[in-house]
Structure prediction request, 658 residues.
Amino acid sequence: MTTIKDVSKKAGVSVATVSRVLNNKKVKKETVEHVLRIMKELNYSPNQIARGLSNKKTKTIALVIPVINNPFFPELASSIEHIAHKYGYKIFLCNSDDSKEKLADYIDTLTSNYIDGVIINSHVVERVDIDKLIQNKVPIVTIDRKHFEHEFTHVSVKNKDGGGIAANHLLEIGCKRIGHIKGPENERNATERYWGYRTTVHKLDWYDQSYVVAGDFSVEGGYKAMKELLIKHPTIDGVFAANDLSAIGAMKAAYEWNIKIPDDLAIIGFDGIAMTKYMVPSITTIQQPLQKMGKIAFEELMNKINNPDAKIKHHELDVSLMLQESTLR
Amino acid sequence: MTTIKDVSKKAGVSVATVSRVLNNKKVKKETVEHVLRIMKELNYSPNQIARGLSNKKTKTIALVIPVINNPFFPELASSIEHIAHKYGYKIFLCNSDDSKEKLADYIDTLTSNYIDGVIINSHVVERVDIDKLIQNKVPIVTIDRKHFEHEFTHVSVKNKDGGGIAANHLLEIGCKRIGHIKGPENERNATERYWGYRTTVHKLDWYDQSYVVAGDFSVEGGYKAMKELLIKHPTIDGVFAANDLSAIGAMKAAYEWNIKIPDDLAIIGFDGIAMTKYMVPSITTIQQPLQKMGKIAFEELMNKINNPDAKIKHHELDVSLMLQESTLR
DNA sequence: TGTTAAAATGTAATCGGTTACAATAATTCG
DNA sequence: CGAATTATTGTAACCGATTACATTTTAACA
Prediction:
């Protein structure tokens, strides 16, 4: 690998000058051109590790995501990777696998690796992890999952609106009894989605709390929840699942009981993962603007990196109805 | 951040000794204990960037994957991340987004970041990229996609066997006319899967080349291919899709034509992505041993890193039939 | 107990950059 | 035209580790 010294020698200038050229500092125009030419000649590219040591910055951010089995996360990760690459940032992947230990491990490595910042999407993060990051002044932005979100800039969507849109949509297509499959207890997004639904239907005469059953954002959870709903309310003809995986589980349950979708039962999910398009029938869902979320999260992180005492901001983006077959009547 | 100097001062020894303790070099037992105690006291953890500069090793590997929209890749990525973390390695995520430029960009950064090695799964990689890596002596292992695989240690599965198992399974459950939805032209895995199928069915009297139609590993491709098959061969009662996404597309097509699965048409895919379980009906598939693939790829990479002239090896792992509803008769 | 070999530790150069400060060259202006 | 600025470049310290080589300490042995 050619180094800055090689360039300096061949160009007949000091390494300081070469470094200045690299960093666009004040250098005479002709010198810049000359040095640049030599760099090209030697096929030089600066050693990022050395730069990192000196700058305490590495143009790398960490992306903390929970387990991979909900396709929402890869899709979100992809949107972040996309924008990060545009800005010339590298991504250090921290897949927490829903394990506190593994996550703590990762958190520990961030400081000693001069990671510039972190985008966190995990409910597994603990107070002590967060404190460690804060103490080391690692800029943080949280996305999607709400956990310590009041302490940081956070990006998520208008979950309550989404819940409302979902419930209203089911009413509009003529559903008379609408159930809800909730997300995990204590998951803020889930609760908000539930409230959107509840606000929309609670004044209707058929509604009572038994139309809401617990799920856990998983296919299996949605499956069980749907069975429960069907047992409690055989006349149910619409269901709003708190996320797409649950909706898929619900569909599976309905299928087993020979209930036709959308005719006997309309199903709507939440997230807008690609899989909803592929299901048979495809599943109507409340779409989260993934690209936008990734972009905002990343840009807020950049802001925080370049301006450590930027004040925190909470972004709640709009969601939209993605109409597909499971509610097509 | 406390540095090695702080530790050295407080412990009353030289930095060299501290470094030796860090690296388990010969140091008097009492000194080791003493230094270790001081480290703990100061909550010291060595700066990995500084270490990297000196060692030209960073305990980081790059993972190059194509686009994220085939869930197979996140699942594979996850398996690699899993084992890498166990070995104390970090993962630098290179999502090529199927773009040659983006990938070339990433390749360029690897050397200047002292990335220890690369696991590549991408058909987008170009000769020039590969050459750049080779020239810089970056250890490489390829996985899944076959591209330049003869130059490197490579991990994939017995695709031909898988194709055979799939076709045989369809025969065993009584299918009389079995079509095949191929993967992309020039994709070696796809070709091998096709040969497995062909070898199994080509001597049967009904078989001719028209039972094989082109797909592209996507849902849309599978959908179109299935329609084509149904038009050409209305009596078809089994189909082997070269990957799970195609199988899903095929299911969608069948559904539109009111063909019942598995009764009228049995479908089998390839890969074993989680999604197959979730489909309604769930899709029988040929499962790739993801965890094992990730483990072997990573360990081979470690081997190559620690022993640069290790000879290349080609691993072809066994696949297995994952029986689900789409072929359940 | 004095020599010598072996073990333990320290000094200082090094990895490849950045940058404060010093030095030199080019301009400006009375 | 010479002093004062300003622009440009160079020197050397520094980032935080590793390690070759030198030095000191300890152990072994006659």
Observations:
- The radius of gyration of chain A is 25 Å.
- Chain A touches chain B through 52 residues (CB under 8 Å).
- DSSP finds 13 helices and twelve strands in chain A.
- Chain A has a mean pLDDT of 96.
